Amino acid sequence: MRNFNRTNIFFKKARKIIPLSSQTFSKSYLVYTLGRAPLFIERGEGAYVWDIDGNKYLDMISALLPVILGYQYPAVDRAIEKQLKKGIIFSLPSLLEYELAKELTKMIPCAQMVRFGKNGSDATAGAVRLARAVTKKERVAVCGYHGWQDWYIGVNPRNEGVPKAVKGLVHKFQYNDIQSLEKLFKRYKNEFAAVIMEPMNLEEPKNNFLEKVKEITHKNKALLIFDEIITGFRFGLGGAQKYFNVIPDLAAFGKSMANGMPISCVVGKREYMKKMEDIFFSFTFGGEALSLAAALATIKEIKEKKVIQVIWREGSYLERETQRLIEENRLENVMELKGKPCWQVFKIPDLVVKSYIQQKLIERGILWTGSHNMSFSHKRKDLNYLIKAYKEIFPSLKNAIDKGMLKKEILGKPIQGIYIR
Ligand SMILES: Cc1ncc(COP(=O)(O)O)c(C=O)c1O
């Protein structure tokens, strides 16, 4: 059995001075079987990470998706080191901004102009502010998760601290339910500045959903923003907009842009993006050069090594085999595997079930929080190791459920969840 002595000691210490003991909900103790799970990572290499107790894991989380190539990926690290010798950040923009913007305008269909941010939330917030400035309207329709900031997070159950007035301007609609969006446009006639959505999350778009959203958004004189923080650089270098051939007015990219270096961007049509000069979208670390250099190296590597094709091919294999095991063990009512091969997510409503699987995977040296976040470093042997683990775990899971013994099998504290959607 794995030892988590240092982990558990440092969790107590850290939580005394760092609320949550993490900077990110989805990297916190809330999504792990506390007591029997790692909580701090010391280093990563390829598809593997080592926790502070020296335990090694095959990492299926990929740092919540930025690590698309792998940890300590040589070509990207070399680009960072090269830039480090020139400087991290300067008092004026570097030409790397121009180079990367140029590259993005070639790759992403809606991208005629580009502005950079750091987190995905910078990009979604910037795009929404821009849409409000362009349309002179205030309401925003949302579908998916779009970051931590006030303009959006009012629709989340965890929304303490967000002013009521701001909460009142954001409205949820349902994916693949065009009527839910139509209703909003009808109720608040001519009041929407933007519709922002993840072009795809767990579900595939059905009945031309994306085309219909675009049509009614424009009919109602609002801008369509695709939140491609996850899909961008995974569905393809042109994002989901290219994959589905539905081109929005604006889009936000982040996560996989630089294999883990902090960078995001707002991209879009020139007629709207030029208004960026008037709104307030400006921060000290925008244009930080190591991340720009890393992004350029990441894009080059993705192109040269055909990374997108590889993660889709390997992801399909993993998806197929996992699906087969779910069916073989008659677990379809307990879990579903959703999403596309490059990013597959388990829908597991019962957190005790999720805790059981996680605990058993951690015992086998696999770090997992309910998704397959594919990276170029996930090799066939790694995937086979995970599949073999599912093969062993799923029958015992089914057995424990049937006997009503599941809860008793969880040794740590069951996963609590974070309710971010
Ligand atoms: C679809 C989507 N949009 C926006 C964000 C916010 O990005 P960040 O956490 O980098 O601010 C996320 C983060 O998970 C996301 O998944």
> Could you name the CATH class of the largest domain?
Alpha Beta
- Average predicted confidence as pLDDT: 97
Which compounds are bound in this model? pyridoxal-5'-phosphate
CATH domain topology of the largest domain: Aspartate Aminotransferase, domain 2
Strand segment count: 14
- Major sheet attributes: 7 strands, mixed
Number of helices: 15
The CATH architecture assignment of the largest domain turns out to be: 3-Layer(aba) Sandwich
Overall geometry: globular
Number of domains: 2
| Beta-strand fraction estimate | 5-15%
Name a few traits of the molecule.
421 residues, alpha/beta, Aspartate Aminotransferase, domain 1, Aspartate Aminotransferase, domain 2, four-stranded mixed beta sheet, 15 helices, globular, binds pyridoxal-5'-phosphate
Describe this structure in words.
The protein is of the alpha/beta class. The protein folds into 2 domains: 5-71 and 306-409, Aspartate Aminotransferase, domain 1 (Alpha-Beta Complex); 89-287, Type I PLP-dependent aspartate aminotransferase-like (Major domain) (Aspartate Aminotransferase, domain 2). Helix content is 40%, strand content 15%. The protein contains 15 helices and 14 strands. It has helices at 5-17, 74-84, 95-107, 120-135, 150-153, 164-167, 178-187, 209-219, 239-244, 270-273, 289-304, 307-328, 351-363, 380-402, 406-409, and strands at residues 41-45, 48-51, 56-59, 113-117, 139-143, 170-172, 192-197, 223-228, 250-253, 264-268, 336-340, 343-347, 366-367, 371-373. A 7-stranded mixed sheet has the order 4-10-9-8-7-5-6, sandwiched between helices. Strands 1-2-3-13 form a 4-stranded mixed sheet. Helix 2 packs antiparallel against helix 11 and helix 12 runs parallel beside helix 14 (380-402). It is globular and about 60 Å long. The model has no long low-confidence stretch (mean pLDDT 97). Residues 119-121, 124, 144-147, 198, 227, 229-230, 254 line the site of pyridoxal-5'-phosphate.
